[in-house]
Amino acid sequence: MKILVTVKRVIDYNVKVRVKPDHSDVDLANVKMAMNPFCEIAVEEAVRLKEAGLATEILAVSVGPKACQEQIRTALALGADRGIHIETEDFPESLEVARLLAKVVEAERPELIITGKQSIDSDNNQTGQMLAALLDLPQGTFASALKLADGRVEVTREIDGGLQTLSLSLPAVVTTDLRLNEPRYASLPNIMKAKKKPLEVRTPAELGVQPRAHTRLLKVEAPAERKGGIKVASIDELVEKLKNEAKVI
Amino acid sequence: MAILIIAEHDDRTLKSATLNAVTAAAQIGAELHLLVAGRDCRAAAGQAARIPGLAKVLLADDASLAQQLAEKVSPLVVELAKDYSHIVAPATTSGKNLLPRVAALLGVAQLSEVIGVESTDTFRRPIYAGNAIATVQSLDSVKVLTVRGSAFEPAPAEGGGTPIESIHFAGDAGDSARFVGEQVAVSERPELSSARIVVSGGRGLGSGESFALLERLADKLGAAVGASRAAVDAGFVPNDRQVGQTGKIVAPDLYIAVGISGAIQHLAGMKESKVIVAINKDEEAPIFQVADYGLVADLFEAIPELERKL
Prior knowledge:
A: 7 helices, B: alpha/beta, seven-stranded parallel beta sheet
């Protein structure tokens, strides 16, 4: 079985973002970038399926500027077999990413597609669902467990209030939630080996897709800062404040 | 053109997240229609009809819509979409599962977790885990959005008498996606995302058993019980209790954080609360920087005392 995983280059999750003074966007100049954490979980899950003998090949795909090849190399170091970079000037919107990925899926025919549930920059939580829709495939979003059996995949999903289990025919699209697994770190020998693994670069034009804009970003602002309050000395003082000052109980 | 709101329900009862979505849709300003899609979901539609301000409740009751799988509901919404300028759903796990699929089938973008309505085509939404707020204008003919419940007051649940219109929908019976089962936690306490008071515990609780302390306090206050990701990862409580960037986003009148250090990921889920109380024995804990009232104390003494003195 061939598995396609998607990886996105995003700001490192430890970095606090700053808004540009002109409010045009956040400032990503000289900021540390990394693989989106939910994509790391997607790669890890694919590698575990391969280690368990359930998958034969893992293809890692990324859409974005040239620097995304760093994240594809990371996926290759973690255990993916080959990479495809769809080179674009900027990061296209979710629907356009899904249209580009759909073309790769049509050509590569993977039986399982694993994406992160959302990227920690735009926080959209859309691409996996959109890809499934465009290809008319079933979707298992926000997965916390995944089991392959009898030509189907059983996905346990994190839903409001609990867990839901679905059985999906293959091919299917699964999007990862945090508790699906704990990703490993790439070892130095594997990082070296990854440099020799195949990485193909494609353009949207070659795939027959012309990404277009569906939205216009008008402004980016920092959220209203919350000011710290006071320290109370005792439970009595706390109860008094909550009753008489804040009036919330 | 009218606005189509997708109701959140479990066939029997309408979920409160629907009411917040109604408020958001009303701010866009047009005739409001609410879709209740499911199997044997007439009871939920009946509750929806009591929400004031709606022009119509659309009831799609079909075996194919059982459990409201995205694969089955999205063709229905797409079929209806031609009559609407906006499609709005709560940013719950079901809304987030369904709406991108609908948007892709319509060939339009979807705006996620909208927290503000600027005009009929311009909306505010958090990006970078709420560390920045983007104002985004949609260029598509149909605007498809999920709205964050905590950013909009719930619409009244009673007082309306909206007509229910049954729509005929014979869905695809295929089993490419099949429902296997569900484990849903049953609780007498209010729902975390809509509770007026939330009491949350963190790693400082030390064990799942200690959460009983918080539960007693919560019951006295009529509060929901939440947890930090650290407490969930440590296995103290199930994941559906998690408040934070990757869990539930809450904005109650009163949020009591107990034994929670205040990681950025947690703050992203609760910093819009009206009043925040932090109880922690580490006076350097970052949670105190956002708390209106901080108490440096051992929670195992403070919580029972607080419960007694309320």
